[in-house]
């Protein structure tokens, strides 16, 4: 007798680590914001591959371009060689994204994933400044390799390395201590007093909205002030837009409303558009100081991902696209505010901005219970934060109103069930 998918996964559990514990089924198909499992059950996806599927599953225009490219024997792997797919992507990225925002960056392909772009940013900052330390923030998440983990503010994740991770200083993120205490003043005192042993760091790295750390959104004034401190002290500012970028917060780059131009920007997840691995490190031209060979890698830039990434940029040619994300974000905010008011038992607080919002509950285990109940109702949703205290609404940014409303209905039912 043939085993079903779940039985196979259970058998593999001894050697496979996966999300199956949180989402215990076997998915076979997906389109837009919908997924189907092997029993044909339909799910609504409010997870979007943790931000890798901002345009939903199997976006039809990207699929068409990719299939045509493959059928035409387009180059798959080309390492550092020039390819037409790479050239087309770079041209469109420059025309559609950088130029209209008056951003002047060189684009680097650091490796296939988010952690690769962070590693390249940290490495380049040290090389260019000749300094060692990096300042990062409480609850920040930047990746799982040694460098990116060393700037990740999560003790459980850090313990995975089994050793202390050096050359980083963790500062309180905006509002981490309280709304009143300006911890950036504190940071400046440190920098001024560097004669007593505090080193000027090479860089400050931050997420404008912390994705994994609990959808903590920094205020724009705070981000601006970090930028000013960086400029005053010749420290490089790295914005990790791996999760918050590519429209997730309502603009292409999450830092746009703060009016800053970071020295280095890390992009991955949805930049490939179709869920294919692609990472970009954007660097200010004067930082382009690596000699050929000082940063290389076999899978830097995947041509299939270039094809879908180029097509994805078509969304950004439409002047109404950003506004549509922002309008739907306001609908999400309204829904969450209503839930917090209507169900005071969950002791909820609104978190995040744009398509990166959620509710943090002061009731232990509540948010996990909501996510579990949501899955029982065929809605896929994750929790975030050091204690999984936040349930996180992460639908594709091109979801329609009907999809949002359906998701809201299921979330409200899940909240009701979790309160019982
Ligand atoms: N930076 C941020 C802000 C992230 O959210 C993540 C992934 N969750 C990473 C870096 C690492 O990306 P990857 O898992 O692709 O290495």
TrEMBL record:
One of its GO terms (molecular function) is diaminobutyrate-2-oxoglutarate transaminase activity. It holds the Pfam family Aminotran_3. Pathway: Amine and polyamine biosynthesis; ectoine biosynthesis; L-ectoine from L-aspartate 4-semialdehyde: step 1/3. Belongs to the class-III pyridoxal-phosphate-dependent aminotransferase family. SUPFAM superfamilies: PLP-dependent transferases. Its EC number is 2.6.1.76. This is Diaminobutyrate--2-oxoglutarate transaminase. GO terms for biological process: ectoine biosynthetic process. Coiled coil: none annotated. Its cofactor is pyridoxal 5'-phosphate. It comes from Salipaludibacillus keqinensis. InterPro entries: Aminotrans_3, Aminotrans_3_PPA_site, Dat, Ectoine_EctB, PyrdxlP-dep_Trfase, PyrdxlP-dep_Trfase_major, PyrdxlP-dep_Trfase_small. Keywords: Aminotransferase, Pyridoxal phosphate, Transferase.
């Amino acid at each position: 007798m043939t085993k079903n998918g779940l039985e196979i996964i259970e058998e593999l559990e001894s050697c496979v680590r996966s999300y199956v514990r949180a989402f215990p089924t076997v998915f076979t198909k997906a389109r837009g914001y919908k997924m189907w499992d092997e029993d044909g059950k339909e799910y609504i996806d409010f997870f979007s591959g943790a931000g890798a599927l901002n345009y939903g599953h199997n976006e039809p225009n990207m699929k068409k371009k990719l299939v045509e490219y493959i059928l035409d024997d387009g180059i798959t792997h080309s390492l550092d060689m020039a390819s037409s797919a790479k050239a087309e992507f770079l041209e469109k990225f420059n025309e559609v994204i950088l130029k209209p925002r008056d951003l002047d960056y060189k684009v680097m392909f650091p490796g296939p994933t988010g952690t690769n772009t962070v590693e390249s940013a940290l490495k380049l900052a040290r090389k260019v400044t000749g300094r060692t330390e990096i300042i990062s923030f409480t609850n920040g998440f930047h990746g799982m390799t040694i460098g990116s983990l060393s700037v990740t503010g999560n003790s459980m994740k850090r313990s995975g390395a089994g050793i202390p991770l050096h050359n980083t200083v963790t500062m309180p993120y905006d509002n981490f201590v309280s709304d009143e205490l300006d911890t950036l003043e504190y940071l400046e005192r440190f920098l001024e007093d560097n004669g007593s042993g505090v080193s000027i760091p090479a860089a400050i790295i931050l997420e404008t909205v912390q994705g994994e750390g609990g959808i903590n959104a920094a205020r724009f004034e705070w981000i601006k002030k970090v930028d000013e401190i960086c400029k005053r002290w010749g420290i490089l500012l790295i914005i990790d837009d791996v999760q918050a970028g590519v429209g997730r917060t309502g603009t292409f780059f999450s830092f746009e409303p703060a009016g800053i131009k970071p020295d280095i920007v890390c992009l991955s997840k949805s930049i490939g558009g179709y869920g294919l691995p692609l990472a970009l490190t954007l660097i200010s031209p004067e930082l382009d100081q690596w000699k050929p060979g000082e940063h290389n890698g076999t899978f830097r830039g995947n041509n299939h991902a270039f094809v879908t990434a180029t097509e994805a940029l078509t969304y950004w040619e439409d002047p109404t696209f950003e506004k549509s994300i922002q309008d739907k974000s306001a609908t999400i905010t309204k829904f969450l505010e209503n839930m917090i008011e209507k169900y005071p038992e969950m002791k909820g607080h609104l978190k995040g901005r744009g398509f990166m919002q959620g509710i943090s509950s002061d009731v232990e285990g509540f948010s996990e219970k909501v996510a579990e109940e949501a899955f029982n109702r065929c809605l896929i949703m994750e929790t975030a934060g050091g204690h999984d205290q936040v349930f996180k609404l992460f639908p594709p940014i091109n979801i329609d109103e009907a999809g949002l409303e359906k998701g809201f209905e299921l979330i409200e039912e899940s909240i009701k069930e979790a309160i019982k």
